[in-house]
Amino acid sequence: MARFRSLPAPHPIALALLALAASGACGRQTPAPAAPPAPRELVSSIRAEPRGFNRYTGRDSVTETITHLTQARLVRIDRRTQELEPWLAESWSASPNGLEWTLKLRQGVTFSDGQPFTSADVLFSFRAVYDPGVASPIGEAMRVGGKPLAVTAPDPSTVVIRFPSPFGPGIRLLDNLPILARHKLEAALDSGTFAEAWSGSTPVSDIVGLGPFVIERYEPGQRLVFARNPRYWRWDESGKRLPALDRLTLEIVPDQNAELLRLQAGQIDFTQTEVRPEDYATLKAAADAGRITLVDLGVGLDADSFWINLRPGANQARPWLHRVELRRAIAHAVDRQAFADTVFLGAATPVDGALITPGNSRWYATDLPRHPYDPAAAAALLESIGLVDRDGDGVREDGHGADASFTVLTMKGNSLLERGAAFVRDALGAIGLRVDVAPLEVGALIDRIERGDYEAVYFRFLTTDLDPALNMDLWLSSGGAHVWNPLQRTPATDWEREIDRLMHQQAATLDHAKRKALFDQVQRIFAEHVPVLQFAAPRIYVALSTRVANATPALLRPAVVLWNPDRLDVREGKRASR
Amino acid sequence: MRHVSARAIGIGLLVLLCAVALAAPVLAPNDPGTSFRDRAFAPPMLPRIVAADGSWHAPFVYPLRLADRLEQRYEEDRSRRLPLSFFACGRFVCLEDERDGPWLPLGADAAGRDVLARLLFGARTSLGLALAASLAAILLGVAAGSIAGYAGGPADEILMRVAEFALVLPAVYVVLALRSVLPLVLTPWTTFSLMTGIFALVGWPWVARAVRGTIAAEASRDYAVAARSLGAGPARVLFVHLLPACRNLVATHAVLLVPGFVLSEATLSYLGLGFPDTVPSWGSMLQDAANVNVLSRFPWMLLPAAAIFLVTLAVNLSLGRQARPVPAPAQIAAGGDPAAGRIGA
Amino acid sequence: MRGYLARRVLFAAMLVFLVSSAAMLLTHLAPGDFVSITTGERASPAQAAQERARYGLDRPIVLQYLGWLSRAVRLDLGDSLLYRRPVGTLVRERAANTALLALAALALATLAGLPAGVYSGSRQGAGASVVRGVSLVLLSLPSLVTSLVLVLVAARTGWFPVGGMVSASSTGASLAGWWADVAWHLPLPALALALPLAATLERLQSQAMADALGQPFVLAAVARGVPRRRVVWRHALRASLSPVASVYGYVLAALLSGSFIVEVVTSWPGLGRLLYDALRARDVYLVAGCAAAGSLFLAMGSLVSDLALAWADPRMRRG
C-alpha cells in the first residue's frame, strides 16, 4: 500500500537529475557529431496516461498499444489481410477434428533481458490469464464456450493446446495473448500481487518482453520513450535485425486539437486517433503541401448505434417501444445519406445492416433486407401498432392517448454523437415521434446502460475483433454486450434463440465458407428484427508525416499504426533531426 | 459630465441587448434548431447593395453553392441576385426565394444551423442566466461580506471560512452528484433555475471577501465612528454609510461575474446539467468553436465572444466608475472634485 | 499574532479534511463507479464483481470512507485505482508542475494587470479605453479558446513548442539545459492562464485606483504640489491595493489547484488534468487526494491574502 510519509519520494526535479546522471553515464542522448548515422527516431502520441504496463490487468487502449511494442504473441493476425502469421510459434499443426493444436516455438529467442524464451513462459502466461485472482480482461477472449484451453508443453520448444470444443477461429484467438516473462512475474502471481505488478511505478528496466521495443523512460504526464530491443528475434529481408527504428517516443497529448497541431508542425509523426471529419480539410491541405500523407482506410468498422431498451421489465407503460414495427419505422425514417452528409460532414458511408460494416469485408453480408428512406412506409408501420396523431398536434398518441415520446441517451462532449442524436430526433419528429435527447457524462451514461435504466441509447461501440466468434458476448442472448437485452437466462424471443443456435454452430464450424454462410443467416435475422440500428459508418483516415516509412495502418483499433511496429522506419533523406 | 454619458450609453446598450433577445423570434431569419443539409460551416451571406459588377440594387444576397462537402468549401453564384424582403414573411427580414437554400446571414455551424438565429436566441438564455446569477451572487456576497466586515470576530471568521469551503469544493462534484438524482430530461426553466443557484453559490465568496475588506476598513473611519457615536444602529451605519463605499467594488465584480457565468454555462452542460441543443446558448456555441480547424477557417463561430464582449462592455459602462484623472491643483483651489465629497460624507 | 496563526492552521487542517471527505463522498454518489466506467460492457457481471472486490468497492460507502479516513490521518492517501500508484506520489508529482505554472502565470498577470489597472484607473482618453477594451475582450473569451489560439499561433510560427513541459531530448541535457527547456515551454501555458487573470486584476485595480484618487489625502497631496506620477504610484497605489489583495489568495489557490482546460490543451502535466481524469473514472481516492491538495492551497492562499491585506491596509490587522 501507499506510503505517503515513511519513504519520501524524490522531487520530480531530483528525478530528472537522476535520469540525467544515468543517461550521462552511458552517453545515450549526447548528440555525437563524430558518428554520422543519425538515430532513426519517430514520435507518436497517445491521448491518455498508461494505466500500467501489464495487458493482463489493464483494459485501457494505451496499455494495449504499448503491449504491441514491448510484447509478442504466439501467432499474429495481419490487421490488413486478416491472415494468420507465424510469430513466436513458427509453425503449427492441428489434429483432424481441430481440437488439438501443436505449436512449434521459434528457437533461440530471448527476452529483452537475455533470458531464453521457452514453452514454460507460454504455460505461465496461460496460468496467469486463467487465474481467478487475476480476473484478466483478456481471460474471456481466451475461453471457448466459457471453458479454458488446456495447454501442455512436451518439451521446451513445443506447446500443445487442446480446445474444449470445436472452434472456428482456431488458434486465431492466441493473437490476444502476449507471452509474459515467467522469470519476472511468477513470484507476483504466486503471492497474489500480480494485479499490482508492472504498474506505473515499476522501474521500467523490470518490464521485459519479446517485442521489438523496450521502455527506456516513462515521464508521467509527458511521454513514454521506447528504445529498440537489441535482442528482438526478427530480421528483415536484407538480413538486418529489426526493429528498424532506434527509438520511438509516445508523447502524451490529451487534447486532440493540440495533437493535430503538433502533427502539422512536424513535432509528431503520427497519432493513434482517427481523423475527425472537421479536421479532414486542414489535413488535406497539409497533405497537398507535401507535409503529411493522408491514408484513406475506407469504411470504418464501427458505426454509431441506436437501440431501444428491450429488457422485459423496461418501458412497461409503453409496450409499443418493444414492437419490431417501431424499430423498422425508425429505420425507414432516417435518410442515411443525409445523415452521413450532416453528421459526418460527408466523410461516411450509409450503412443499413447488422452491425457488420463493409469495412469488415471478410464477414459483411451484401444481400440483407434493407430499409430505404421512406417516411410514408414509416408512418404506415407506426399506424399498424396504433400510434396515430389523434389530436392533430403533430405528435402521435398511443391507444391510451399518451404522446408517443421517448428519451435517447447519448454521450456528452462527443460532437459526432451529439449531432447524430439530434439528427435522429429531427427525423423521428418528422414522422410524429417526439424524442428528447439527453446527453450524459460518460460515467452516468454507462451506469444507466448497465442498470437498464433508459429508453433508448445512441452510442458507439468499438469493434475489438473482426471474427464474430470472438464477439460472442454481443451476439448471444446470454452475453453481457447483447446491449438491448443482456444476460438473458433463456432467449426472450424466437429470433434471438435462432441467432444463438446459429452463432454456436458457426463458432464450432471449422470451414470458413460454411461459417460465413451461417453468419450471413445471423445477419439476415438481425436485419429483419433490427435490435440495433445503424445509419452511417465513418470513413477512416490516418495522417502520417512524410518522414514515416513502412507504415501499415489498419482499421482495427486502438493500435492503428503500431500493431506492426518492427518495420516502421524513417524515410531515407528525412532522417535529419527536426 | 463624461462618465454620466458613458453610463447612459451602457444602459442603452444593455436595454438594446435585452430587446434584441426578446425580439429574437422576429429578428432571426431561421429557426435556431433547424439543421440545413449541405450547409455545414457555410460562410456568412452578408446582405449587399453593390453587385459584383458595381451596379447598385435593393438589399440582396448571392446564392451559395456547396463546392466540396468534405472540405466544407462553398462558392457564391455571382450570376444571380436573390433579393431580401422586409416585414414580409412574419420576420423582420428574409429571403424571398429560398429554393437555393436558406439565408444564413452570419454563416452556419457544424450541424448547418443558422449562427445568427442561435446568437439571438442564445441571448435569451445566456443574458438572462448571467444577469440573474450575477445578481444572486452579488446579493449573497454583499450580505455575507458586510456582516463579516462589520461584525468582525467569530461571525467574520465563520463566514469567511464558509466562503473558502464553498470556493474549494468545485461545483463539479456537487453537479455530478446532483445530476444523478434529477430526472433525465429537465425543462429549460428547471435547468435555468438550477444553474442560477449553482452560479450564485460559486460566485458569492469572491464578492463577500472583497466587500468584507472594504467594510472593515471603512468601519474604522471617522465618519462611521461618528455615525455610531451619534446613536445610529448597525443596520443604519451599514446601509447608509458603509455599503455605498462598496458600490464601485461591487460593480467591478459584476463586470467580472457576468462574462464568467456566460462562459461557465458550457462547463455545466458538459456535466449533463445543460440546455438541450435546441435551446442555444453562447457558452455552448463557443465550446463548439474550440477546434483548431474551426478557429482558423470559420471565424464566424467566434461571434458569441463578440456578443459576450458587448454585454460585458454594457455592464462595465452602466455600473462601473470611469477613470478619474488626478485633479490639477488649480481645480482643487476652485472647489475640488465634486465627486470626491461622497466618500467623506 | 501567534494565536491567530494557530487558529488558521487548525482551520486549514479542518478544511482539508472536510473538502477531501466531501469530494470523496460526492464522487461516490455520482452515477457509475470505477469498475463500471473502466470496464464498460466488456466485463461479465462476475468479473465486474471480482474487480470491485479487488478494489474494495463492494463494501458499503461508510466502511470504505472510514477505511480511507483511518489511513488518511496517518497521511496515507491510498492507491489510485486508475494508475495503481500511491495517490500521495501522483499528487506531489503533478502539484510541483502546477505550482511552477501557477507562479509564472501569477507573476505575468500581476506584472501586466496591476500597472494596466493603475494606468486605466488614473487616466482618461484613448489609451485607457484601449486597456479597458482589451480587458473586456479577454474576459469574454473562454480559456478553451484563448489557449487554443495560443497553441495555434505557436504551431504556425514555431516561436514556442506546441505544448508539453520539457522536450524528450532535454532529459539528457545539463540541469541548466533542462531548466532552459522548461522555461521555453512555460510561456505558452502561463500566458493562457495569465491573460484572463490579468484582465481581472486590471479591472479590480482600475476601479480601486479611481476610488483612491478621489480621496481627500490625494487632493491634499496634489495641493501640496506632489508631482502627479508620485501621487499615483506612491500615495494612491498603496491605498488602492486592498480589493486586489483581498482576492489575491483565492486567485493563487485557484491557480495552484490546476486549470484543467489549459493543462489539457497545452499538454502540461499538472494537477487539473489529474483531477479531471480521476473524476471521470470515479477514482475516488485520487479525487480525494486532489481535493485535499486543492483545499490545502486555498487555505494557504487565503492566509497569504489576509497577510497581504493587512500589509496593504494597516486597519485590517486584527488579533
Brief write-up:
Chain A has helices at 12-26, 61-70, 119-130, 182-190, 256-264, 280-288, 324-333, 336-343, 375-384, 415-430, 442-451, 472-475, 494-507, 512-529; strands at 41-46, 75-77, 84-86, 89-94, 100-105, 143-144, 147-148, 150-155, 158-162, 213-219, 223-228, 247-252, 270-271, 292-299, 304-308, 348-350, 405-411, 434-440, 456-460, 532-534, 536-545, 548-549, 569-570. With 578 residues, chain A is an alpha+beta fold. In chain A, a hairpin with a 2-residue loop joins β6 (143-144) and β7.
Description:
The complex is a heterotrimer of chains A (578), B (345) and C (319). Chain A has a five-stranded mixed sheet, with helices on both faces. Chain A has a five-stranded mixed sheet with strand order 18-17-19-15-20. Chain A has three domains: 72-196, Alpha-Beta Complex (Dipeptide-binding Protein, domain 1), CATH 3.90.76; 211-294 and 547-570, Periplasmic binding protein-like II (D-Maltodextrin-Binding Protein, domain 2); 304-537, Roll (Dipeptide-binding Protein, domain 3), CATH 3.10.105. Chain A is α+β, with helices and mostly antiparallel strands. Helix content of chain A is 27%, strand content 19%. Residues 1-33 of chain A have low confidence and may be disordered. Chain B folds into two domains: 45-103, no CATH class; 115-341, MetI-like (MetI-like fold), CATH 1.10.3720. In chain B, the strands form two sheets. In chain B, strands 1-2-5-6 form a four-stranded antiparallel sheet, with no helix packed on it. In chain B, α3 (115-151) packs antiparallel against α4 (153-168), α3 (115-151) runs parallel beside α6 (188-219) and α8 packs antiparallel against α11. Chain B is built from twelve helices and six strands. The two termini of chain B are 21 Å apart. Chain C is mostly helical and 319 residues long. Classes of the chains: A alpha+beta (578), B alpha+beta (345), C mainly alpha (319). At the A-C interface, α1, β12, α5 and α11 of A face α2, α3, α5, α7 and α14 of C.
